[in-house]
Amino acid sequence: MRILFAGPSLSGTEFVPVRGGEDRVLPEYGLTCRGPAKCGDITHAIDQGFGVIALVDGRFEDVAAVWHKEILYALSRGAIVYGAASMGALRAAECHPFGMIGIGEVFERYAFGGLEDDAAVAQVHAPAEFGYVAFSEAMVTIDATLDAALAAGTIDAGEYALIRTRADAVFFKDRTWRRIFEVVAPEMDRAAERLKPHIRNIKREDAAMLLDVLLERKSATPVTELRPDFAGWQFNETTQWSKLRV
Which residues form the TfuA-like core domain (predicted)? Predict the structure, then answer.
């Protein structure tokens, strides 16, 4: 049994629920789709019998985020746990020594590329009934776009630094391309015209890579195969874990 937790990273696809609080079951894939995960959701999925868990998007502002402990619980019960794109990439970077499998560029940036800011994947989005459409852009998308524009010679290193600094200073709920173009306009000519051809929705790209792995498509392989560094680790049922289980 396989379950996917996803929202804005896969908005507009068949892999997200259409109503809040309800699963979307896709029997042709042998897959259950739920919205962004919150604290306790992965534990609940394991208790329901799911043996393969894919974490893409997660909730973090209005509720407690997915605990690392529940990922360890899932792994200790023999489940395969994948992470990519957003909250999944973040948790995979933190839990891959224990066996969680990270997929995609965002994961690699967190795990090996020096990215530390949890908020770099944060976005504001609509609920399930409106397709989880995103209203803001994550900093990882800005970075991927700037990298592509720099590689193509559309911007130079100084403009790269300027745009990134100005974008990072915009509150994450207000961070749209339109807003970014506005704040850099006094210091940079034709920013929108030059950047738009290079926009990369890196979270969606990584989520699509995870789907390829999850659905066992022939062309799909994880970006990085990782073996647990902590062989023989054991799951400890701490007091706080017991409170979550109540």
Answer: 57-176
- The span from the CA of 96 to the CA of 35, in Å, is 23
Angstrom distance (rounded) from CA 238 to CA 246: 13
- Contacts of residue 218, defined as CB under 8 A and 6 or more positions apart, other chains included, come to none
Rg of the Cα trace of the chain? 19
Tokens standing for residue 214: 């999850």
Q: Which residues share a beta bridge with 235?
A: none
Selection from 60, 66, 59 nearest residue 20 by Cα: 59
Write the DSSP symbol of residue 88: H
Domain ranges of the chain: 2-123+203-235, 139-198
Residues 221, 241: Cα–Cα separation, whole Å: 33
CA angle 159, 170, 63 (to 5 degrees): 140
User: In a structure prediction context, what are the per-residue pLDDT tens digits for the chain, which is 246 residues long?
Assistant: 999 999 999 999 999 999 988 999 999 999 999 999 999 999 999 999 999 999 999 998 888 899 999 999 999 999 999 999 999 999 999 998 898 999 999 999 999 988 988 889 999 999 999 989 999 999 999 999 999 999 999 999 999 999 999 999 999 999 999 999 999 999 999 999 999 999 999 999 999 999 999 998 744 455 455 555 667 788 888 888 887 776
In the block, which residue shows the tokens 């850099």? 184
User: Please, what's the largest Cα pairwise distance for the chain?
Assistant: 58
Selection from 174, 170, 7, 172 nearest residue 85 by Cα: 7
